[in-house]
Write a structure and sequence with these properties.
Blueprint: E1 2-5, E2 20-25, H1 27-38, H2 43-50, E3 69-74, E4 81-83, H3 85-88, E5 91-92, E6 95-96, E7 109-116, E8 125-126, H4 128-137, E9 147-151, E10 169-170, H5 172-180, E11 185-188, H6 197-207, H7 215-219, E12 226-229, E13 242-245, E14 256-258, E15 262-265
Helix pairs in contact: 4-5
């Protein structure tokens, strides 16, 4: 068995459009933080702490170290993640939208199919016809619950501003095509399923047509679907013959959740 990591990290050193901060407390700093927490419950304890008294000294701990601690302040849309209908709007298919913690786990462990679309340019969209043509090339017909991974190669730009501006988006026809085949989850190695902002906003300003704005995301209000954003390493996968695992982290009432997506090859 071979496992290929399909995930991008939550990285506070990479260029991001959403604020992202990781507060790190080292093993040495942890000793002081521990005392500050323990001695913050009463005014008497606080005063003792200010005088320099400590309940636990570094000498009381192995190697004079406590435990490290990291606090992550991040959007659920940083790193590899699954989006569900609550992200798209308050209602989907005329029902209350579902949050990421409601994603059925059995959908997240299924056969994978890679569709190669590396010829698509950033200003272009991926259509139903594109998907059908590529599937014909690999002689495969989609089956219900297949997890379809759309490979554009855009993950190689991660960490740079271009990651957010130079990738192809999806056409609604592609989403319909997948849903009609019984697909519940599909994934992209781009930062989103719609075209980059610069193309959408430019065309909206020119045409004054609201349909130019996030059409794929808003389509999730009409039809319920789940998609994975920010996949990576799809170039390491065969077209067929692997399974995808993409269980979402269980976070209460969010439209998206982080996932450690992997491919399992026999």
């Amino acid at each position: 068995m071979r496992i290929i990591d399909l995930s991008l990290p939550i990285d506070d050193l990479a260029f991001e459009v959403h604020p992202l901060r990781i507060e790190r407390t080292s093993h040495q700093e942890g000793v002081e933080k521990l005392n500050k927490v323990l001695m913050s419950r009463t005014d008497e304890d606080k005063a003792a702490y200010q005088r320099g008294e400590r309940i636990i000294r570094k000498e009381d701990l192995p190697d004079e170290e406590f435990l490290s601690l990291e606090m992550v302040y991040s959007s659920v849309h940083s790193g590899t993640h699954l989006d569900y209908s609550y992200h798209y709007g308050s209602k989907s298919e005329n029902r209350s939208s579902k949050t990421a913690e409601e994603i059925p786990l059995e959908w997240c462990y299924q056969k994978g199919v890679k569709i190669t679309l590396t010829d698509k340019r950033p200003e272009e969209v991926i259509t139903a016809e594109d998907l059908q043509q590529r599937l014909n090339k690999i002689n495969y017909q989609l089956e219900p619950l297949d997890i379809v991974l759309l490979y554009t190669g855009s993950d190689k730009l991660f960490g740079k501003p271009e990651y957010f501006s130079d990738y192809p988006g999806l056409d609604i026809s592609a989403i319909d095509y997948l849903l009609d085949k019984g697909i519940r989850i599909f994934g992209v190695d781009t930062m989103g399923i719609d075209r980059p902002y610069k193309f959408m906003i430019k065309e909206f300003k020119q045409k004054k047509d609201p349909k130019q704005l996030w059409p794929c995301h808003f389509y999730g209000r009409k039809k319920e679907f789940i998609h994975i954003e920010r996949l990576a390493n799809l170039d390491r996968l065969p077209d067929l013959g692997f399974k995808v695992i993409c269980f979402p982290v269980r976070i209460r009432k969010t439209g998206a959740a982080w996932a450690r997506a992997v491919a399992v090859l026999d």
